[in-house]
Amino acid sequence: MRVPQHFLLVVAAAMTSSALAFDPFVVKDIRIEGIQRTEAGTIFSYMPVKVGETMTDDKAAQAIRSLYATGFFKDVSLEVDNGVLIVNVQERPSVAQIDIVGAKEFSKEDLLKGLRSIGLADGRIFDRGLLDKSEQELKRQYISRGKYSAQITTTATPLERNRVAVRFDIVEGEVAKIRQISVIGNRVFTEKELLNQFKLRTPGLLTWFSKDDQYSKQKLAADLETLRSYYLDRGYLEFNVDSTQISITPDKKDVYITIGLSEGAQYTVADVKLAGETLIPEAEARKLIKIQPGEVFSRSKLTESTKLLSDRIGNDGYAFANVNAVPELDKDKRKVNFTFFVDPGRRVYVRRINVTGNTRTRDEVIRREMRQLEGGWYSAGKIQNSKQRVDRLGYFADVNVETPSVPGTTDQVDLNINVTEKPTGSVLFGAGFGSEGVVLSGGITQQNVFGSGNHIGVQINSSKINTVYSLSFTQPYWTVDGVSRGFDVYHRKSNPAALGLGLYETSTTGGQARIGIPFTDIDSVTLGAGYESTNLTAFTGAPVQITSYVNTFGNQNTAVLGTVGWGRDTRDSAIYPTSGAISRANLESGLPGGTLRFYKVSAEHKRYFPVTRNFVLYGNAEIGYGGGYAGKPLPFFRNYYTGGPTSVRGFYPANIGPKDINGDPTGGQRKLVTNLEVLFPFPGMQNDKSIRLSTFVDAGIVGDTYSISQARASAGIAVSYVSPFGPLKLSFAQPVRSQAGDKLQKIQFQFGQQF
Question: What pTM was estimated for this model as a whole?
Fold first, then answer.
C-alpha cells in the first residue's frame, strides 16, 4: 500500500524553509513526470541532489527555484514515495509557427528578425507577455516608416502537443506626411534659409521617392546637428536648440514639427595661441591653423585646424597625438580666444602590415602601393597616401585602413588594410539613338589579370561606317620601382561608301610599344614608339579632301610614331572621386623613316571639387593642336574629332566640326572641349556609391581655328550606375548650340557586363 508524502511547492513557498518542513531522506531514485518536449537530462542537470544523496528542505527549495528559472515550466511540484523523489512539471507551450498577414511595407523576413530580437521565434517557449512586446516592436518598425495609423491584431491558437500558433494581422494604413516645419526664435536667418539645411521637408516633387517628407527621429537629429553646424560656422557660439515638438493629427496622417532655438551673439576670434609640445616649428604650426584673429568664428575651420595639426605631428611617428582647442569667451565684447593644446604622446612605429579581403588580387599588388613601410616610424601622410594609391588601382569597391595598437606595447601599431574586391573585367556594350539610327560598340577588358595587376583589353567598335579591332596589354610594375611597359596592336577600317556618304575607304594597321616612368607618387612620364600602315582607296566622285590627300601622300603610306606623355593623378578614388584632379599632356609625332610626317599636341585636366558632403563639382578641359611638317598638312584621318557620350553629349559621335559636301564630318587640326558637371546621389540613396545623378553642360570646337562661332554646346542630365551586371551610363542631352548639318543623339548610353 502506497502512503505518499506529498507537497506542492509554488515559487513563493519555495523561498521560505518553513513551508517545506519534512524529514530528510536518502534519495533512492528520481523520476520525472509531465515532460513532453524537455529532455529528462535537462531537469537532472538543474537538480541539487542526486541518487544516494540526502534530500533536505533547502535542497527542495533550491530545486524549485532552479526549475522555475529555466522558463520552461509554468508549474513544478515534488513528491516523495518510499524514498523516490518524483518531479512533476507542467511545460509551457512552444511557438510552432508565426504568421504575418497584411505586411507590404516590410518583408516578412525583416519583421520576423525584429521579433526574434525580443525573444519570439519558432521553437522558443511561448510567453503571453511577449505578445504585447511583439506588437510594440512591429508598431515601432511601422512608425519608423511614418505609418503611425498601423493597426496590429495578435492571435494565439493552441495546437496539439502543447504548441501555439501565433498570427499577426496588420492593417498598415497610410504614411503620415510632414505638413509643416516651423522654426521659432530665429532672428539672424530666415526660416526659409534654415529649412533649406534640412533633409526633412514637406511633400514635394521627388519626396515620393526620397521619403524625406516622412518623419524620422534619426533624420530630425541629423538635421538639428546640421542646423547647429550652420550657426557655429557663422560665429554663433552660444547657439542652442531649446525644444523640439512633434505633433500628429488625430487621424495620424499629418505631422507638424516645431523647433525652438536660441541664436545668441556672433563671436569673432580675438587671439589664437599654441601650448604644449608641438614638436614642429611654431611658424609651421600656425600655417596649419585655418582660423585667424579678426575672423568670424567657424567650427568647421577649427575642426580642420586640429586635424591638420594632429596629422602633421602624426607624420613624425606620433600616431596618438591629441590636439584640443580650448575657447575663452568674452561675452561683453563678443570675442573668443583659442588655445591649441598639443599632446604628441609616444612616438610609435609600424610593426606589421596586414592585408585582408583580397580573394583574387595578390598581396604583392597591394603591398607595392604602400608608402608606409613595416618597421618605419608611423606617418599619417604616408598611410593616407598608401590608401589612396590602393583605391586608385580600381580593383576594389572599398578600402579600409586601421592602425590598432600592438597588445602589450606602447610604441607599436599594426597597419591593417581591408579591401572589398569588385569585378575588374568587363564586357562593354555601347549604343546611341538618334537621327542616324543605332551605332554599336563593344570591348572586353580585364584590369587585373589573374590578380597580378596587369591590364589586358580587346576592343571592337562596329557601325555601318567604322570598324575598329584593338588589343592592348599593360604591366604596371615591370620593375620593382614602378616602371611599366605595354603594347597596343590595332586595325581600323573606315568605309563611308557603304552608306554613300563618301566614295572612299581607309584601312590602317599598326602597333606601338610603351614604357611608363614614375617620378613621384602622382607624376609619371610615358614614352612610346610604333609603326602603322595606311591604305586609302578613293572612288570616282570622292570628296576633295580625299583626292587632295591622295595627290599629296599617295594611296599607301607608313608612319613611324613617337609619343611622349606626362600624367598626374591626385584623385582620392578611381571609382567614386570626390576631390583631386587628373592631368595629362601628350605629344605624338610622325618621325623620319615613314612617309607621313606630322605632330599632334594635346592636354587635358579633370578636376573634382567637393561642394557639400553629397555634391561634387566636376570640371574638364581638353585642348588639341596638330599639323604637318615640310609644308604638308596633317593627314585627314589624323584630324581631331569630337561629339558623343564621352565628349559633347547630345551629338552624334565625332560629328562636331566641318563637313564635306556630303555632310560628313572632316575633323580638324584644332580641338577644344569643356565639360562642367554637378554630381550628386540618387534621391533617397545618399549612402549608395554605386549610383549617381548629374546635371551637365558640354561644349566643343573642332576645326582649323579655335573660333567660338564654330562651338557646339549641350545641357542635360545623366545617371551612372555600377550595377551587379556591369557599369551603365545613360544621358539625355539637349543641344543648345548647333549648326545646320549636325546629327543629334539626345539619348545615349553605354552598358558593360563585369566578370
Answer: 0.64
